[in-house]
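Comment thread on ticket #2218

A.B. wrote:
> Attaching the input chain for the structure job we discussed in standup.
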Amino acid sequence: MQRPNPCRLTLVPQDDTAAVTDALWARLRREAEEAYEREPKLAPLFFDSILNQPSFETAVFHRVAARLRNDVVSLPLIVQAFAKACADDPCIVEAAKADIAAVLERDPACDRLIEPLLYFKGFHAIQAHRLNHWLWSHGERDFALYLQSRSSEVFQTDIHPAARFGHGIFLDHATGLVVGETATLGDNVSMLHHVTLGGSGKEHGDRHPKVRHGVVIGAGAAILGNIEVGEHARIAAGSVVLKPVPPHATMAGVPAKVVRIAETDEPSRSMNQTLSDLAYQSFNYTI
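C.D. wrote:
> Ran it. Output below, let me know if you need it in another format.
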């Protein structure tokens, strides 16, 4: 019996994935053609990255590889590794579709699909990590660590290859992101720059946060230790979270405290990081 495919395309019904893929690729090509007409001097970028590529996934592989390549790892070597990983695990491609859809949905500065595919280092860093995670899980640890190091240098993100990412991940700006080895991100998580999902000391084993579905983590926040951040939680910018976070809670402060629980919030989609709707007096900080 054929094993069922565990992939799902976040944000769209599973039965529509083929149609969505066709529409996604058609829109990317149309946007690239329009961009070429406006900016013909960038023809090599538009043609090499999109217009001369046969599919969405090859366009993503090529663009990320073009940014990671150097004298040690060539563009064809990285593209070949992507192709091998995706042939083994089709979820990598489905996750990339959900990731690019997440950027368009959540980033008010983005109104074209070609922007994350061509320019946004957050999107590129996630796709590089998906490859690194596959390499790590299949015994190619030195290759994974080298590409992780290269990705850190190029995209300013430090994501351990063993960390597990769900679908529809959005890294806004991405600079300074640190994700530890045993961290887990669920689907539809949004994070801003200088976020740390780290350990709380020198302990070994499972020592990093577990961030559940639909969480938004504001700029400069640190979540430390093997603690769970419940679904649809909101971590305010600059907060330091040291204890488990209930689902739908808003956390703020150093150390962070629960300042609100709102069952209907979907903060990762609204990208609302402000606390203007909360009374300042609710922050009863103690030293």
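A.B. wrote:
> Thanks. Noting for the ticket: The two ends are 61 Å apart (CA to CA).
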